[in-house]
Amino acid sequence: MSDHLVTLPDAGAVRHDVLDLLALVGHFAAPDSYPPGRLEQELLARFAGEASVAISDIATWLSGAGIAILDQKDLVAQARAGNAAPLHTELQAQNDRGVIQLLAVSSADQLADAASGRPLTDQVAPCFLVRVGYSDADPYGYYYVGLPGLSHTQTRIPWQNVLVAGITDVLSVQPPKPAADLSAATDALHIMEQALATMQAAHATVQAALGIASEQSI
After folding, report:
1. Which of helix, strand or coil describes residue 172?
2. Digit-coded pLDDT (tens) for 57-74
3. Using CA atoms, how far apart are residues 90 and 75, in angstroms rounded to an integer?
4. DSSP 3-state of 204
5. Looking at the structure, do residues 188 and 154 belong to the same domain, yes or no?
6. 112 and 158 in contact (C-beta within 8 Å)?
7. By the number of CB atoms within 10 A of the CB, which of 94, 100, 166, 211 ranks highest?
8. Residue 52 in 3-state DSSP?
């Protein structure tokens, strides 16, 4: 048995816990798009003056930044109706593919540390989490939590606690696309050109054998 984790870069520090999570997501999904500190500055300019941040605002920002996301609203609806297994299975499968998720829950006070069992907070308030993996030996996942002192640290939270906290939204965030291999593309083009030349030569040989004049000799 082992843990399944998606490796995230160090996003640095910003002054708001939710912005910490968004910076983490941005650096994960677009690692080469921002000079040092630029992403944090953009997030502060976009969100820091707002009293709260809605999942729709986050989705708009992610899409505008060119970050591929998938809204899991259908699976969330099933989970809220009492059938959480499909959502849980999909989150695990996505983590195995290198996908992370941004979750919104309605009651942060229901979130507890898997090791100690202690609640992460006594705040009865909405909260965002970034899920980056899970254990296949124990029923918990690895999360960065939008709470003071927890947005830069992986916290193990039992899946049941996340469910009880009331999942309202899940956005799956795709990993960055690998850089294009220009040398491989050039090699492939060269091979294709060679194959085309070979085909043309073979075609000319057949024409000559049949006594058929090529278009160039007409």
Report:
1. strand
2. 999 999 999 999 999 999
3. 9
4. helix
5. no
6. yes
7. 100
8. coil
Distance CA 77, CA 167 (A): 9
Residue 41 has pLDDT above 70, yes or no: yes
- 165 has pLDDT over 90: yes
Task: Tell me which of 173, 191, 206 is where a domain ends.
Answer: 173
Interatomic CA distance for residues 96 and 93, integer angstroms: 5
The answer on 155 and 84 residing in a single domain is: yes
Q: DSSP assignment, residue 31?
A: T
Closest C-alpha among 68, 60, 19 to residue 39: 19
| Residue 217, pLDDT score | 42
Q: Tally Cβ neighbours within 10 Å of residue 6.
A: 20
Q: Do 109 and 199 fall within a single domain?
A: no
Q: pTM (2 decimals)? A: 0.75
What is the tens place of the pLDDT at every residue in 83-139?
999 999 999 999 999 999 999 999 999 999 999 999 999 989 999 999 999 998 889
| 188 burial level (CB within 10 Å; 0-12, 13-18, 19+) | exposed
Burial (CB < 10 A; 0-12, 13-18, 19+), residue 185, is exposed
Tokens encoding 19: 């912005």
| 209 shares a domain with 168 | no
Contact criterion met (CB below 8 Å) for 174 and 70? yes
